[in-house]
Amino acid sequence: MTQTTAPATGSPSPAPPALEKDGRTTERALTLRLLARPEVGVFLGALAVFVFFFVAAPAVRDGSSMATVLYQSSTIGIMALPVALLMIGGEFDLSAGVAVISSALTASMFAFQLTLNVWAGVIVALLVSLVIGFLNGWLVVKTGLPSFLVTLGSFLILQGVNLAATKLVTGNVATDDISDMQGFDQAQKIFASAFDIGGVQVKITVFYWIAFAVLGTWVLLRTKYGNWIFAVGGNKESARAVGVPVN
């Protein structure tokens, strides 16, 4: 007859073996995690440039001068935001700068030559801009050519069209003055007004720039579409294999 001895009540069970940690599971310090993010490098570079000019150029320390810098930066930055989304997605648009001029010329000439409300020109200019962007994207997808080449062609075409169309319609290479046309004052308040902050006039475009940057960040980090942008920019074929509509 075999007798089984029960373990003593309250005796601790053997501890599981300790898991060995390697470099993949070791948690990095917060500082290292921050420095590994690509946007931190850009921020530090911009901060270094600002500090340099803040020290070397006394005029930069003046509030009105800084407001001017912010205004100039915002006009470029608003355009740079969608171009940045393209670059994250692995594409590029060289025609963006000239397309902005095409849009402005369209709004001015359409409203002036047809004696319409300025807002009619703004709407037509928006449609023209959307068509230019659509054609660029359609050509990249259908031809398989690099977006750099397609948009370089668009850049040269738009540059010629801007000069030729303006010369043909107005007789010179500049558009007519639309400041006395109906709707101009309302458009100016929305697109070119300024706010007094601490005695400094800050243009509304700065706030548009910040708002669009926040919106773009939210789209990238919090939406399915933003995830698609990252996926396509990382590897198109892998993204297509998991169901991302790459085209």
What secondary-structure arrangement, pairings included, does this model have?
Layout (H helix, E strand, L loop, with lengths): L29 H6 L2 H19 L6 H26 L7 H18 L4 H26 L3 H24 L13 H8 L2 E4 L2 E4 H19 L1 H11 L1 H6 L6
Antiparallel strand pairs: 1-2
Helix pairs in contact: 3-8, 3-9, 4-5, 4-6, 5-6, 8-9
Features:
globular; two-stranded antiparallel ribbon; 66% helix; 2 strands; 247 residues
Describe the structure.
This protein folds into two domains: 59-90 and 193-247, no CATH class; 92-192, no CATH class. Helices cover 66% and strands 3% of the residues. It is built from ten helices and two strands, in the order αααααααββααα. The protein has helices spanning 30-35, 38-56, 63-88, 96-113, 118-143, 147-170, 184-191, 204-222, 224-234, 236-241, and strands at residues 194-197, 200-203. It has a two-stranded antiparallel ribbon. The N and C termini lie far apart (78 Å).
Tell me briefly what this model is.
The chain is mainly α and 247 residues long. It has helices at 30-35, 38-56, 63-88, 96-113, 118-143, 147-170, 184-191, 204-222, 224-234, 236-241, and strands spanning 194-197, 200-203.
Q: Bin the strand percentage.
A: under 5%
Q: Give the biggest sheet.
A: 2 strands, antiparallel
Order of helices and strands: HHHHHHHEEHHH
How would you describe the oligomerization state of the chains in this entry? single chain
Strand order of the largest sheet: 1-2
**Total DSSP helices:** 10
Radius of gyration of CA atoms, rounded to a whole number:
28 Å
Distance between the termini: 78 Å
Question: Quick one: overall form?
Answer: globular
Number of domains: 2
* Count of DSSP strands: 2
What structural class is derived from the secondary structure elements? mainly alpha
